[in-house]
Amino acid sequence: MTHVVTSACVGHKYQDCVAVCPVDAFRELDTYLVIDPDECIDCAACVSECPVEAIFADFDLPEEHEEWLERNEVESADAPLALGDSPVLA
What we know:
By secondary structure, this protein is of the alpha+beta class. The chain has a single domain (3-76), classed as 2-Layer Sandwich (Alpha-Beta Plaits). The chain has helices at 16-20, 45-49, 67-76, and strands at 3-5, 26-28, 33-35, 55-57. A two-stranded antiparallel ribbon has the order 1-4. The protein has a two-stranded antiparallel ribbon with strand order 2-3. β2 (26-28) and β3 form a beta hairpin. The longest helix is centred in the C-terminal third of the chain and has 10 residues, at 67-76. It is globular and about 30 Å long. The N and C termini lie far apart (30 Å).
């Protein structure tokens, strides 16, 4: 089980979730964040911190966001670690 960042993050890239993550699970792309499923420990600390409600547990992922499960896995592989110090886009 893992958590997934969905399309609601695109264009925002808030860092609140990164700040509370006890492991280095978040990766940073140009306009959004993703979660590395190999690093996520499913603590769910990030879910309530996301101001745009973009993070879901994989088993609770709305159908319209199903593609984001694979996107997080694939895109996190080559993305740099999110350090929580990048500017918010919105």
